[in-house]
Design a protein that fits this description.
The structure is a single chain. This protein has helices at 23-31, 39-42, 59-63, 78-95, 129-136, and strands spanning 2-5, 34-37, 53-55, 68-70, 99-102, 113-115, 123-125, 140-143. The protein has one domain. It starts with a strand and ends in an 8-residue tail after the last strand. 29% of the residues lie in helices and 19% in strands. The model has no long low-confidence stretch (mean pLDDT 97). By secondary structure, it is of the alpha/beta class. β6 and β7 (123-125) form a beta hairpin. It binds iron/sulfur cluster. Iron/sulfur cluster binds at residues 5-7, 13-14, 38-40, 103, 106, 108-109.
């Protein structure tokens, strides 16, 4: 089984109520064996919702209680993001999934890059909270940009 970020197959679960539909990933889903997840919705956040960025570190720092996830109004939503990561992991484990394709640059899903926490549009190296938790638990995480790469 393969886990994918639900927004990548056209589910309108993005913070602004839209999606990030990727035609090839949607085709994978149609063939079967794919479980869509949205960690932010699974964490109890509404759609639409405020955008949020990790401040003071990466997804691993959030999991370890060393960084926050804040909205532009300064609300800390880290607990919802952590809850969503744990629920996503539960689904992945129940399904025996060993791989995931997660949406780049998301504070939940980003496998390689996230925003810098200042709402400046600047991108920095780092993982989202769910991507980090999946990796810690032995689930291989790719993004929509490198999921076809072997190995
Ligand atoms: Fe997509 Fe992940 Fe953001 Fe949900 S949390 S909208 S699945 S990138």
């Amino acid at each position: 089984m393969l886990i994918v970020s639900a927004c990548l197959i056209g589910v309108n679960c993005k913070y602004d109520g839209g999606n990030n539909c990727h035609p090839e990933i949607l085709e994978l889903y149609k063939k079967g064996g794919v479980i869509p997840i949205c960690p932010e919705q699974l964490g109890g956040l509404s759609t639409p919702r405020s955008p949020a960025e990790i401040r003071g570190g990466s997804g691993g720092d959030v999991l370890d209680g060393k960084a926050r996830i804040i909205t532009p109004h300064g609300e800390d939503v880290a607990e919802s993001f952590k809850r969503g990561a744990l629920e996503s992991l539960k689904l992945a484990k129940h399904a025996g999934a060993k791989k995931a394709i997660l949406k780049e640059k998301s504070p939940s899903c980003g496998p390689y890059f996230i925003y810098d926490g200042a709402f400046s549009g600047r991108i920095v190296a780092g993982k989202g909270v769910t991507a980090e938790l999946f990796q810690r638990e032995g689930i291989k995480v790719n993004s929509e940009n490198d999921f076809k790469r072997k190995g």
